[in-house]
Amino acid sequence: MMRRLAFLFALLLVPVPAEAAKVKTVAALANVPVWLSEDHTLPVIALSLSFPAGSSFDPSGKSGMSALAAYLLDEGAGDMNADAFQSALAARGIRLEVSPSRDTVTVSVMTLSANAKEALRLLGLALTRPRFDADAVTRVRLQMMQSFDVSREDPNAVAERGFYSLYFGPYTYGRAVQGEPRSLAAISANDLKAFAKSHWVQGGLKIAVAGDISAAALAPLLKSSLGSLPDATPPMPPVPLRVGAAGLHILALEVPQPAIYFGQAGMLRRDRDFLAGMIANYILGGAGSGSRLTHEIREQRGLTYDVSTDLVPYTHAGLLLGTVSTRRDAVRQTISLVKETMRKFVSEGPTEQELDDAKQYLNGSFPLAFTSNADIAAQLNSFQQLGLPLDYLGRRADLIAAVSRDDVRRAARRLFDPEKLTIVVAGSLPTRNTEPADSP
Length: 440
Fold this sequence. Notes:
The chain is of the alpha+beta class. Helix content is 43%, strand content 17%.
């Protein structure tokens, strides 16, 4: 058994030729997009599917519902309890994983192509006939509660939860994906069954497959395994009514190195300036050691090991989100440098060299996201979730190359406004008169 699993995982890491990323649609389920990247180099198949069933769909007072339901996916289905179901997966070397997020729950399956029929049968059974047995619910819920308790001492986890709660408020994206002990305790097995029945459905379902299978072979397998999912669409959560809580918010935590989360309104993926915003973000804080924030905060002053920003396009809200950790006596100075670097970017815009470097990196690194069947399936499914068209793969490089310096400056003016930053610090700050003289 261990040799079978080791062989499968080794195959999943073997690079896949670039030609494998050529994508076609498969007619399998009515109104469900299915994308296939067919490649027979290796006897491996990877599948990634997503439902609109993330934490933004959690009922009021029961945050963590979507995540708890997702984590129970391999804890029994049909007439098999948790042990029997997991043994059936292991017997064929089938890997099943779930990833809950704010908008979606993503399910990943990896298997040898010889076991594709059984892998999809078990997947379909888990999605259409979940058990939610009392012992499994209790065990998984306890694991989530224990994880939350441990995270109370983690400044990054505390800052992240605090930021989302303050920025979005108590609804939709403001809820913690993993919930919290009180809300998890309020979730019953019947709640989970009702949630799965109304959210693990065909409406909004998106499927991407990569590897050693043809469209003709894939279609009937998907029909037989997922065709009995309810032909319904879950009610959409409300659009966030409150976005942003500008200013500095301190979440008291006795740690030597506070964690700082900062952010403001970003862009939806369909925004015409999104690619320009992606380039602007890369230059500001997304380029790792090559970003302006890294240069100012780490290289010039040695205040942090890592600072980064990201452009996060949720379904109903865009977010520019940044993170940095520093010592207690440098928190205010670090925040001041973040703001000043933003102001300078808005005032001056990117240099031609920065623009060229960003384009070269974003286009040059893109193929690295398609080096295995698992990577390909995951990337294609993420494109589906973002509403990108099938031909995006072929057009992306030209779209990025066409972004001008003026486009990036316009995007930067929209994205980088220091006065609108919501800043959350998990830690404590010394009084001002004990800080270094150069701190603001």
